[in-house]
Amino acid sequence: MATFAIVPQHVEPHSLAGPDADVSPARRTAAAIDLMRSATTAIERRRLVHELIEANVTVARAMAARYRNRGIDLDDLEQVALVGLTKAAQRFDPTAGNDFMAYAAPTIRGELRRHFRDSGWMIRVPRRLQELQARIATAEQDLLAALGRSPQPSEIAAHLGAELDDVVEALSADGCFRPTSLETRTGEGSDTIASLIGWHDPGLASVEARLLLDTAIADLPERERRILHWRFVDERTQAEIADLLGLTQAQVSRILARLLRQLRADLSEQAPAA
Question: Residue ranges of the alpha helices (H) in the chain?
């Protein structure tokens, strides 16, 4: 992930922190906001925005740390959190009377969650499950503290007011950020997951053909897909299909012959060159 050039390496010589390195972030933030209310030039406001960012860098990093160990490097999460902090500082209106971190925290969380949604999943999972997993992670910590043990899926669902099936599905998708490596050892011995996977599977020869056939069938009208399903999946006779459609057996026979010719032609066009 590319590094974001968002936080100044140092505050200009007029830094509000002054020589006292122990000035608290809250005091630095309050001082910057007071001066922002009376700032008259763009340069002065920009300097104060930088001060506001630097005063709250540790808070942004702490928020990023809450999302660690979920498949994305902490350094990347901290950069994303600093993007959110910078956006909040640039948009903050000091005359509105709002607490800065109360204003900035939702922006920082939003950037972190957006990064997980867009960049963190090695296996694509529906967004509703991604969002539910984030809620489940928080609920599990709350329930662990309250119950003194790991919560059951039903307890998590009740805590969140969510459907049990959705919670189970989200828990099943856990690990999609970063699947286990095939080089992971399976026990105390030297065997890895890869060493236990069979090397020859006769069914693999038909995988590509099946994928191409599925694609070709998907392009057919629904009525024709239904006829093929009845004939080759349900194994109905042409006479039975004719009764279902209100056609004659001869008409069904001609439809099937035409469909098979069309599919053969489509597969010939899709087949990769040898």
Answer: 25-38, 42-55, 57-65, 74-91, 100-119, 127-147, 153-160, 164-172, 207-218, 222-232, 238-245, 249-270
Select the CATH number that applies to the domain covering 127-172 from these four: 3.40.225.10, 1.10.10.10, 3.40.50.12780, 3.90.660.10: 1.10.10.10
pTM: 0.42
User: Is it true that domain 203-270 has CATH number 3.40.50.2300?
Assistant: no
Q: What is the pLDDT along the chain (274 residues), one digit of tens a residue?
A: 444 434 443 334 344 444 444 568 888 888 999 899 888 899 999 999 999 999 999 999 998 888 776 667 788 889 999 999 999 999 998 888 878 888 888 889 888 878 876 665 555 566 777 678 778 888 888 888 888 887 888 899 999 998 888 888 877 665 555 555 666 666 666 677 666 665 566 666 666 677 777 888 888 889 998 999 999 888 899 999 999 999 999 999 999 999 998 888 877 765 554 4
